[in-house]
Design goal:
Largest sheet: 7 strands, mixed
Distance between the termini: 22 Å
Order of helices and strands: HEHEHEHHEEHHEHEEHHEHEEHHEHHEHH
CATH topology of the largest domain: D-Maltodextrin-Binding Protein, domain 2
Radius of gyration: 22 Å
CATH architecture of the largest domain: 3-Layer(aba) Sandwich
Number of strands: 13
Structural class: alpha/beta
Number of helices: 17
CATH superfamily of the largest domain: Periplasmic binding protein-like II
Amino acid sequence: MSRQLLGAALTAALAVTLTGCGSGGSGSSDDALEIWIRQAPESASAKTAVKLAEGFTKASGIKTKVVAIFDDFETKLQQQAAQRRLPDIVINDTAQLGNMNTQGWIREVDKAKVAGGDQLSELAWKAAQGGDGKYYAVPFSAQAFALVVRRDWREKVGMEPPATWDDLTKLAQAFTDKDPDGNGEKDTAGFVIPAGTKRGYASWYASSMIYANGGDFVTAGGGGTFTSTVGDPKTVEAVQYLQDQFCTTKTVNPGAVSNDTTVTHEVFEKGQGGIYLVGPYVLARFVKSVGTDKIEVLPVPKGPSGGPGTLGEGENVYLMAGSDNEAGQQKFAEYAASPDGQRIGMNKDADGAIVRLPVNSQVDMAAERTDPRWKVFQESYDHAVYSPPVPNWAPIRQTSADTINAVWADCSADVKAAMADLHTKLTAELQSQKAS
C-alpha cells in the first residue's frame, strides 16, 4: 500500500475509534477538563493559561488541568490519539485546523449555538472554518505581523519610518553600514530573519512580504478545492526582494539561514540587527530586554505590485473528539472567547499574553493595554491573510520553506525557476490531499 493510501486508511480508522472512546482528560482520576496549550512549561504564557483555567473553574465550577507543551506538540498529540487518550481541549494554531480535522481529532462546532459567538470577529471565525465551510473550533486569539524596529538606531542614522520597500532597503543598509549602535565597529545588520527550515520558518517569515505584495502560496476555489499560486510574479517578486537582502545589499544578520525564532529573538535583543518582522507576542519581552524607548512598531510597507497585507495568525480552542464532557468543552470555549476570558488571556501589557489581539468585539484593547504600539498590530490585522484551510498545511509550509531557504542560502539560485519548481511540488501535494 502506498504511504498516502496507508495514511488515509489509518486516519479514517483513528477517526472512527476516537468518536467512540473517552478522552484522556475526562477519563482521568479527578475528572478534570484537560487543556493542552502550545507553550513552554513554566513560561509566563503557561502561567497565563493556568489563570484562564482558574477563572473558568471559578465561573463554572468545572475542574481543569492545564498541560503546557512546546516541543513536538503535534507528535505528542499523535501519541495520545494512538492511546485513545486525547485531551478535552487543545488551544493551538489556526494553521493546524486542517491537519487536526483530517486526523479526526476535533469535532464540529455549531457556530449558532456558541454563546457570545456573534460578538467574535468574522475574520477570526473564518480561521476556525474548514475547507468544507463547516466550523471546527472557536476563535480565541488573533495576531498580525509588523516591523519591530530599533527606534534609537533609526533616529541616529537620520531616517524616517519606511513607507515603501525601497525605503525599507535603505533603512536596512543604514543599520548595516552606518554604525547605529555607535561602538565604532561594523557589527550590526539591518534585518534579523528566522530563515531556517525548522517548522517551516523561512516561508512563515516570507509570507508577510508575499501578502504585502498581493501574492500568495495557495488560493481557495469552490467546493473545498485549492490551487497553487506560488509561481505568481507577485510572490516571486517578494522572495526575490528578500534574496536581494541576503545576497546583494547583504543586510541580513549572519547565520540567519540556519536560525529559528528562538535564536532570532536573541539576535535582536543583543543588538545584532535592527528590523524584525514578527508578531506582537514578543513586544513585552523586547520592551523589557531592549528598553521601551529604544523600539517602535511600524506597519509592513505595501509592496510595489500589491497589498497591503501581512500574515494573520492566532489560536483557536479545539474541542477534541471522544471527550466524555462535551458540555464542559463547549463551556470552556465560550468562556475563553468571552470578554472575561479574553482579558485574562491578554495579560495587559505584561509578558505572557496568550491572547495577542482580542477576537471579542466587546473588549477594548486600549483599555487593557496602555502601550500604543499594540495599535499598529491591531490595525495591521484589518488586512491580515490567514493560511488557507487545506487538509494539511504543514507539508505546504515546509516544502515552501525548503525552497525559499535554498534561494536565500545560495546567491546563484534563480528565484523564478525555483518558485516554478515549488509550484509543481505544491500542486502535487494538493493532489495527494485530494484538495486540488
